[in-house]
């Protein structure tokens, strides 16, 4: 046991249980145990063969625990994370890290004051749909990309637990937006110059159960138009739109779902510009006429594979001073500021102009 890296998990709900299952598969890690304030969850963990601490104090006093993963409701993240760091523990906090930038800064200061590692579990950086579209973007296959759409759609409404209550940090901007916005910021490195957003309240009036945000990034090259990104979450959609849609000067890419159904379509011949008009019910159009097959080429999506457990492998290296932590403090702050911009724009009905 002493040769392994000891990890304990605070919270044994959906994400806490997910962390436990992942950690139990890793040879590098010793799962020391869990603590949840709900006795029923603790009993469930014990039935699964997981050690249960009798209190948070007992967990934090265990010298075998080098890192604590915190998977509890959003409003509790700051206080519990700081408590753990003051006990000398390295901390992974579930997303969103906190309810505001100010709270996030407090947590980062606590890590520095106590000489421990502190980071956020941005696990969807390892989603293969994201890594695939990121590869397409970075390799420049589509030419200059001028629009990216990222969305997730469901039809069950907002969950009926703490996620539908504002006091606990509920709402889809904080629940799913934190993932999608972080992915966009990991893909597009230029500064954000404007944000306009609109929230949905279809099934819940207290917090948003969906949103749409239009984000403009500074041009990569001076004089070019800004890159426009549309980020959308919906929980009342019975027909899902594509997970990713990317438009470039030389072609388009679509990823329909998490199963990576999709394709890339590229121009193969710019010289053949003649179009056969399309006759619609009330007229005709050459502008919207489809390209002929001899002017385009279809390609499969590139294959990109990942292992989300690399998040924890990196943390072991970072604690030992052998690597930088993957999810860095400045990235955490940038995502939080972008979420605040989305919420501020939706509240005021105005575009937020600033550099993030």
Spell out the key features of this protein:
24% strand; 356 residues; alpha/beta; 5-stranded parallel β-sheet; 30% helix
| Low-confidence blocks of residues | none
Cα separation of the termini: 44 Å
Count of beta strands = 16
Give the overall pLDDT as a whole number.
94
**For the report, how would you describe the main beta sheet?**
9 strands, mixed
Q: What is the molecular shape?
A: elongated
Proportion of residues in β-strands: 15-25%
Helix content: 25-40%
Order of helices and strands: EHEHHEHEHEHEHEEEEEEEEEHHE
Radius of gyration: 23 Å
Which structural class do the helices and strands define?
alpha/beta
What is the tally of helical segments? 9
Strand order of the largest sheet: 15-12-11-10-6-9-8-7-16
